[in-house]
Amino acid sequence: MNKTYLLIGGNEGDRFLHMQQARANIELICGAIEQVSSLYSTAAWGKTDQADFLNQALLIDTRLAPHALLTSILSIEEKMGRKRTVKNAPRIIDIDILFYNREIVADPELSIPHPRMAERRFVLQPLAEIAPGFIHPGLGKTIQQLLRECTDTLAVKKI
After folding, report:
1. Who has the most CB within 10 Å: 51, 93, 107, 140?
2. What is the CATH classification number for the domain harbouring 92?
3. Which domain holds residue 35?
4. One of 52, 61, 94, 152 is an active-site residue; which one?
């Protein structure tokens, strides 16, 4: 089994319901959810003229290989009604692979660890709640260290 950290989030429609549906679909299709962070509310990052996001970090135990996991995640997003339009646009659900064991995957379709996670407080805050001591395999720092060093000033509020 493979320990995988995911970040789920969204800012369209019934955000709480969509987060619940995403967790149910992940558990059904990808693997058992072992840990769940609190929900966090965050202003939109990048494209700021939109509703606040809800975000949550998950630890799952999956049998899927990294690319198969990505395919499954994309199918969940599509099934839930996600339409990919403009970068950083509003969305019903977004599911990102943050870590897959301690592996580094770098190819055109998939980058693990998530390449911009260390720059984003809305990723680090919920992840630090469930994995403060996890060491980023590319940066050699714990999640707690990355959170302390993060220069992103966007407010992240625990709900």
Report:
1. 93
2. 3.30.70.560
3. 2-158
4. 94
